[in-house]
Specification:
28 residues; mainly alpha; rod-shaped
């Protein structure tokens, strides 16, 4: 179960980085 939570946290972090990049590159 802990592994799943860790992967979920990593996925959320990746999404956050992608969102920041999206804002910079105006992919919104």
């Amino acid at each position: 179960m802990t592994k799943v939570i860790g992967e979920l946290a990593a996925a959320i972090e990746l999404m956050d980085h992608a969102d920041s990049l999206g804002s910079i590159m105006k992919f919104d």
